[in-house]
Each structure stands twice: as structure tokens, then as C-alpha cells.
Amino acid sequence: MFAGYMINAWTVATIVAVIAGVVGFFVVLRGSAFPAHAIPNGAFAGAAGASLIGVNTLFGLGLFAVLAALGIGALGRRGRHDVVTALALVVMLALGAVFLSQTTEYEPEIFSLLFGEVLGVASNEIVPVAALGVTCIVAVLVLYRPLLLSSVAPDVAEVKGVSSQRMEMMFLLVVAVATAMTVPVVGALLIFSLMIGPPAAARSFTNRPPVAIALSVAIALATVWSAIAISFVTNWPIGFFVGAFGALSYAVGRAWATWRGTRTVRLEHSRALAQA
Amino acid sequence: MHWLFEPGFFSSHAVHVACVIGSIVAVVSGVVGVFTVVRGQSFAGHSLADVATAGGSGAFLVGISPLFGFVAGGVVGAGAMEMIGVRRARGRDLATGIVLGASIGLAALFLYLGTTRSSTTGASQQILFGSIFSTVSSTVPIVAVFSVVCLGIMALVHRPLLLSSVSTDMAAARGVPVRVVGLLYMLALALAVGLSSLAIGAILSTALLIGPAAIALRLTRRIGWAIVAACLCGVGAVLLGVLLAYDSYDWSSTHAYWPVSFFIVVIIFLGYLATELPFLRAARTPRRQGEPAAPGAGR
Lengths: 276, 299
Known about the structure:
The complex is a heterodimer of chains A (276) and B (299).
Chain A: H1 4-30, H2 33-53, H3 57-75, H4 81-102, H5 107-115, H6 126-152, H7 154-159, H8 164-186, H9 188-205, H10 209-234, H11 238-275
Helix pairs in contact in A: 1-6, 1-8, 1-9, 1-10, 2-3, 2-4, 2-8, 2-9, 3-4, 3-8, 5-8, 6-8, 8-9, 9-10, 9-11, 10-11
Chain B: H1 13-39, H2 42-62, H3 66-84, H4 89-118, H5 123-129, H6 139-166, H7 168-173, H8 178-200, H9 202-219, H10 223-247, H11 260-274, H12 278-281
Helix pairs in contact in B: 1-6, 1-8, 1-9, 1-10, 2-3, 2-4, 2-8, 2-9, 3-4, 3-8, 6-8, 8-9, 9-10, 9-11, 10-11
């Protein structure tokens, strides 16, 4: 499991989990689940197009992810956000259908772009992934305070001179960069699970943003590492385990929040009785 | 006329089936879609297509008709979303995302097991992208029956649904069972999306659900007219898209049909962009009385 050819898989998966944990915290906080699903899925079409004309798929992914972010951000100013996201998604998927219809790509290639092929990561893929990952983290660090403020209290942020439209655009671009680097590794469909499940679980355990981000990264790492290990043993697709563990951690988080909620109510109740 | 209609367009059986099934789906999606856009549940509407796909690939794996897999997957997914469902829109999108993530994982597993056991090439691509031209004519009656069921549910709940979409509190105060109405609506949505993603693929399913309804709600604020306009937009886009896809055979030297979903999606997207034009936007002046204003129109 820790043989030489597996080292790349562990390294890349660790980078991906850290990014997904950090960016995902803001995805959950802002309720941006739909864009976080649409951007990677649309970027998949870019990869199909890049393989059609024979350039590196990372360019296609990056180009389409950024175009998707800009399109959703720009059109979202005028129309409803979810409608615009849906339309942007179907337009890009339809383009992907055209690219696929014009190529004679071997089917497993498409399968791996959608569902990921972490066990087949080459060493020369690690450097661009790490570079884009650092870009992502730096962007989140720079934007941290205004982004947090405009996510929690957009009105207050506007008063303090933080344009929520500009923040939305910046955030979508961060999601786009995170997407471009993660899609070839864990697949268009599964990066979404990783950006939703662990952060949502972390949010049910704590309300303090820095703690929640750290916890979200920890859960994402646990999810990805155990998914690789079990996938290595059973030979089942890693995406299944990422999806299952993501949903499972959310369920545990919800159960914990409910249990603690009833316990605090009970405590307050008994305290009130004691005072009476 | 020859340059517009390639020879054999009107006599092709595949074209007939595509037009009929596409129109049925467009009408059902138009009716359900107007409420989806008004309620701001586009994400759920799109996700159910993927959730239904997971059901379809599961059915493919155990060897039963994918139709039941699609419908069962959609209904179970819709139920799960509504169960987790949190009142606020953000929480609702999160619940949708969790269900979507879990079912995508299941789809990955089913497709993997399916392709390694029976090595049916193209199965995963077929399920994911579908094609209106590859629909067999025997599915038409089944789709029609489920569509009638779906429209029946919508006819039953449309008034309380509209009220609870505009204001949950007001609806609850008037004695509308908000949860039951919401659940019935999700059931109708799951049926519509499950059937359409089976018949025409997941991409077109979302496009026909959201696109025409969004266009219609920008043209009019009366919900009745919006439903009619959405159905007309959807059917028009389907018929024009089928025609263009049929003609596209001669466009490139390779003589391959371009995917029909591409044309339909582009037509719908251009239609949505056209509603930004000034003379169309003039129709969207706010209404002061009469029909309940649809909060989904414009901003």
C-alpha cells in the first residue's frame, strides 16, 4: 500500500484534501453548494475539449473553470443565482457532449475524468497541483476577513466597504482554481463531495471559524486517506468511499449537534427549575 | 426548403420518436419548472437527475429495467432531501449537496461493478449523457403515463404550493400543510426529472426544467401565463434542436451527428440572454395588485 508508485497518490490526495477542507468551509458557510458542483462539472467539458485538440487537459480544465466562475458571477448580478448556475452548467456540459461526440476517446478516460483516478497519478502532475494548491490557500488567507464578513453578514460588509458582488466573484475564482487542480485527481463529481461533507460536519461541531476550518481539513484528510486505503484493498472506485464517508461524517455531525442541543436544553431546564 | 430540412427528416422514425418524447418532457418540465424556479430549488432539480442516474445504473447492474431505477432513485433522493431539509435556503442547498454527493459515490460504484462484470462499453456514457435519438419508441407510453401522474400531482397542489412558495408563514397561518405540500411537490419533481433524464439524458433534463421556466418568468409575472410560456419555449427549443441536429450530419467532413442536447441547450441559453434585451424587459414592470407576484421573476 505504501509502495513507491503509491507515494504520488498519497501526496496528491493529501494536498487535495487540505484545499477541499479550507475552500469547502466557505462553500458551506456561503451556501454555495450549487456553484461548487457546477464549476468542476463544467470544467470536465474543458478537459474533454483539450484532449480533443491534443493539449494538456489541465489547461482545458482551468480555462473552463474560470469561464464558469466569471459567467456565473456576471450573469448572477441580474438574474437569480441558482437559475444562472444551472444554465451555465448545462451549457458547458452540452459543449462537453459535442467534444465527446467528435473524439474517439476511450471510454475509461472519460470515466476517470468524472470519477477520478488517484491511483494513477504521475510524478510530474504533483508540481502543478501543489502550485495551484498554494495559490488557493494564499488567496483564502488574503481574503479571509472580508470573505468571512461578507459570508456571514453581507449588509455589515457593504457598510464597511466590502462589495459582496466582488467577494462573490473572488470566491468563485478560488473555487475555480481549486477545481482545476483537483478534477484530474479525484474527478469532477467527487471533489464536490469532499468540499461539502467534511466542512458541513465540522460546522456542526463548532461555531468558531478557525477551529471549524482546521476540523474540516482533518475530516477531509481522514476521509481521503481511509478511502485510498480501502479502495486499494477492495479495488472498488475511490469515489464511492469518498462520497460515502462524506455523507457519513455529516450524519455524525448532525447527530452530535442534535444530542448536544437536547442536552443544553435539558441543562437549562434543570437550572431554571433550581432557580425557581 | 431543401436547405432547411435535410432529405428524410419527416419520414425518419427516430425523429418522430424524438419529437414526441421531447415535447412530452418539455411540457411536464415547463409546468414543474416554473415552481422550481419560483421556489429557488434549481439545485435540487438538477441534483435529482444525478440521483436518478445512480438509481438507473444500480438497476442496470442488477439487470432490471433502468426505468424503475431512475424513478425509484429520484423518489428516494427527493424524500431524503426533504427529510434532511432545513428551512432556510442555504441549509436546503446543503442537504441537497449531501444527498447528491452520496449518490454520486453510489453511481461510481454501480458503474464500476457494471462495467467490470459485463464490460458493456458505452453504458456509463449513455447513462450520463443520454440521447434523445436513441430513445426506443416503446418508452413513449410509459413516459406518457408517468407524465400524466406528475401533472395530476401538480394540478392537485398548485394553489397551496404557490402560496407556500411565496410565503411559508402565510401559508401555514391559512392552514396549508406546508410539509405535505412540499413533499408532494418534490415527488412530482422527482418523477419529472427521473423520467426526463432517462428519456433524454441528465443535461437536457436540467436545461428543460430550468431554462424555459426562467425565460417565462422574465416575460410575465402571472403564474398561469408563465406556465404556458415555459411549455411553448420548451417544445419550441426541442423541435428546433432536433431539426438542427438532424441537419448537422452534413456540417463536418466526418459526417457525424452533433449531439441534439447541444442545440437545445444553446437555443434555451440564447433565449435566456435575449430576455435581457430592453424591449422584452419592459414587460416586467412590477404589478401592484391582482395575481400573486412571482418572486422568481427578475430579481
